Amino acid sequence: MGIATKRHVLPGFGLTIGLTLTWLTLLILIPLAGLFVKTSELTFAQFWSTVTSPRTLHALTLSFGLSFAAAVVNLVAGVIIVWALVRYRFPGRRLFDAIVDIPFALPTAVAGVALSALFSQNGWLGAPLAALGIKVAYTPLGIFIAMIFIGIPFVVRTVQPVLSDLEIELEEAATSLGANRAQIVTKVILPSLLPAILTGFALAFARAVGEYGSVIFIAGNLPNVSEIAPLLIVIRLSEFRYADATAIAVVMLIVAFIIIFILNRIQRWSQLRGAVDH
Which structural domain, as residue segments, surrounds residue 151? Predict the structure, then answer.
């Protein structure tokens, strides 16, 4: 008697996995491999000199630092927005829900021009802020605001369906057992939302790190002041210093991958912990 083999419920697993790996290789792995191959044209000394130059380090620090800070703001603001949209009924709720998606649909150049006009020294918001001595446009603060603008939908749309599916009966049961509001939030609601919150945070961070169009218009693009790493890569390409550009891109890729990998591990841990608790 032959050994029984496990059969999949849905047929075509071999074809599906083959197509998946093919597209993954063509669209992701080969381009990334080309990035590393082009960087290998530099000696290690040249590579190290390129990525540790003051201009490059400032651009990388600015991009990753502001992206992380913007993602933190989006995390807090996004959860509050989701809570209001899901748990409350108020006039214009559907309109506000649709407005959240505007950064998704708006071309990045249009978003950059709009933010620059809004926060310029003569803009609707820029003028009163300038009167207070706060300059937004063409400063790192402007970059920070642009990153918040383009990242907020990722948190909202990731957390919203999870909170919508969260049964209110769980909160009522916790209340009947004597839990106060703070305990319900920290022991019932947040553990259920944590994986989605971390996913939204990672997506907002990744979008902000790689954002170019909406940032360059409000950044001012001053070296060692408001120059982001993607812009520096474009500058190096325009100077035909392709290996230098790919060297900066490789550093961005590695750092972004490490951060997102850590966030995914934390997300996986929270999911497993939630499964055990339930």
Answer: 43-277
pLDDT band of 121, cuts 50, 70, 90: confident
Mean pLDDT of 124-134: 90
22 and 147 belong to one structural domain = no
Q: Are residues 37 and 127 in the same domain?
A: no
Cα 218 to Cα 128, 163, 187, distances in angstroms: 17, 34, 42
Verify that 17 and 118 share a domain, yes or no: no
Domain assignment of residue 244, yes or no? yes
Q: Give yes or no: residues 115 and 151 share one domain.
A: yes
pLDDT digits (tens, 9 = 90+) for 141-171: 999 999 999 999 999 999 999 998 887 777 7
Same-domain status, 133 and 227: yes
Do 173 and 246 lie in one domain? The reply is yes
Task: State how far Cα 35 lies from the chain centre.
Answer: 22
* Type of residue at 126: G
pTM across the whole model: 0.84
CB 143 within 8 A of CB 58: no
| Angle at 194 (CA atoms; ends 192, 198), nearest 5 degrees | 150
Query: What are the pLDDT digits (tens) for 25-83?
Result: 888 888 888 888 889 889 999 999 999 999 999 999 999 999 999 999 999 999 999 99
Average pLDDT, rounded, for the chain = 87
